[in-house]
Design goal:
GO terms for molecular function: lyase activity. The protein folds into 2 domains: about 130 residues, Aspartate Aminotransferase, domain 1; about 240 residues, Type I PLP-dependent aspartate aminotransferase-like (Major domain) (Aspartate Aminotransferase, domain 2), CATH 3.40.640. It contains 15 helices and 15 strands. The strands form 4 sheets. A 7-stranded mixed sheet has the order 2-10-9-8-7-3-4, with helices on both faces. The model has no long low-confidence stretch (mean pLDDT about 100). It binds pyridoxal-5'-phosphate.
Length: about 375
């Protein structure tokens, strides 16, 4: 079993990415979705080789990326997807915007399901559309899609939905039944479903994951998936994502995008993604999932012991924890006080939508020491 362990703090502080440069060195950064692990060996090898041979030109028009993803999807999700129905672009955000531009008319409404990854609001407006909020339903023990609310939004004229599967920030893996039902509702109204599946490689074993396009015939007809290796393998700066479809009409939409959308794919991103999706990286990804599993449980234990006011449900996927701190009485945006006084940077809950008041999002894609230190610092602030 390969053990995937986060780098020591001193080494992480040498990094120059957003996570390590946004705040001064006395702040522990657990905000943006970057992880603190070394690269998977196959990715390091591919990137070193490219650097050594100066292989830094444009991405080729024929690459192994689509077939590498198809093989990955089959191995990891049991999903058969046709490499001929995929196109690459720079990142998931760009894929979402370009698809939304094509499937909506200016001013049309796109459903989003808050609390949700904050840029979703901006991506919808960048595409010229407007946001219609249909919050996730909180059952008391989990979150789920509000299918009645989504149906009502379509009845009221919304023409598409931007789905987050698995969901950021709650880490919810939507059930197969809910995705099948969503697809059928969308199909009934001729609405498009754009499914952001960037966190899919990070679904924990034991939780069944359904790629949206694999949720029945209606899903194939209405769906577009945007996928990437970038969250699981920490490749966000390298710029590579895939737009995936499963029916002729949706494939034609993606094929109809300007060639420039594909030219924006990063060469390093593509080389790294091919290595990430290869069988050679499976053991590393399994090791990462084990580490994240330990971290999500460690966080629960720490919060129970040191911050009992915090409400936290263990996520099914990913390395993001959605924590309700309203019990502390620190107002709508507790992350502000935590940053200023405890020197821990968390993502601001209200940025995810009104449902995020009193919440923070904590990135546990790091070492047990850093997670422990972060919770200790916040607990010390409570004790003051
Ligand atoms: C759900 C979700 N979508 C998209 C992104 C951003 O992806 P990209 O950098 O490929 O645009 C993130 C980043 O954290 C995310 O969590």
């Amino acid at each position: 079993m390969l053990e995937v362990t986060a780098l020591p703090l001193a080494e992480l502080r040498e990094r120059s990415s957003e996570k390590w440069r946004e705040y001064p060195a006395d702040v522990l950064p657990l905000f943006v979705a970057e992880t603190d692990f070394p690269l998977a060996p196959a990715i390091s090898t591919a990137l070193h080789r490219a650097v050594e041979s100066g292989d830094t030109g444009y991405v080729a028009s024929r690459t192994p990326l689509a077939s590498a993803y198809a093989a990955f999807a089959r191995r990891r999700f049991g999903w058969s997807v046709d490499p001929a129905r995929m196109r690459s672009t720079a990142d998931v955000s760009m894929g979402i915007v370009e698809i939304l531009r094509r499937v909506t008319q200016p001013g049309e409404r796109v459903v989003v399901t808050p609390p949700v990854y904050p840029p979703f609001y901006d991506l919808v407006s960048e595409a010229g559309a407007e946001v219609q909020r249909v919050p996730l339903r909180d059952t008391g023990t989990a979150w789920e899609l509000d299918l009645d609310g989504i149906r009502a939004a379509f009845e009221d004229g919304a023409t598409s939905i931007l789905l987050c599967n698995p969901h950021n920030p709650t880490g919810t893996v939507h059930s197969r039944d809910s995705l099948v039902a969503l697809a059928e509702i969308a199909d009934e109204f001729g609405a498009a479903v754009v499914s952001d599946e960037i966190h899919a490689p990070l679904v924990q074993p034991g939780t069944p994951f359904t790629p949206f396009l694999d949720a029945g015939d209606a899903a194939e007809r209405v769906g577009y998936a945007v996928v990437s290796a970038s969250k699981a393998f920490n490749l966000a700066g390298l710029k590579c994502a895939l737009m995936v479809t499963a029916a002729d009409a949706t494939t034609a939409v993606v094929r109809g995008l300007p060639i420039e959308v594909e030219w924006r794919t990063g060469q390093f991103g593509l080389l790294a993604a091919v290595a990430a999706f290869s069988e050679e990286s499976d053991e590393w990804l399994d090791g990462l999932l084990r580490t994240l599993d330990q971290n999500r449980v460690l966080l629960e234990d720490l919060l129970a012991a040191r911050l009992p006011e915090a409400q936290y449900r263990i996520p099914d996927a990913g390395y993001l924890a959605w924590i309700d701190l309203s019990g502390l009485g620190w107002g709508e945006n507790p992350a502000r006080r935590i940053l200023k006084e405890a020197k821990v940077a968390l993502h601001f809950g209200p940025a995810f939508g009104d449902e995020g008041r009193g919440h923070v999002r904590l990135n546990f894609g790091t070492s047990p020491e850093i997670i422990t230190e972060a919770v200790e610092r916040i607990a010390a602030l409570v004790a003051r």
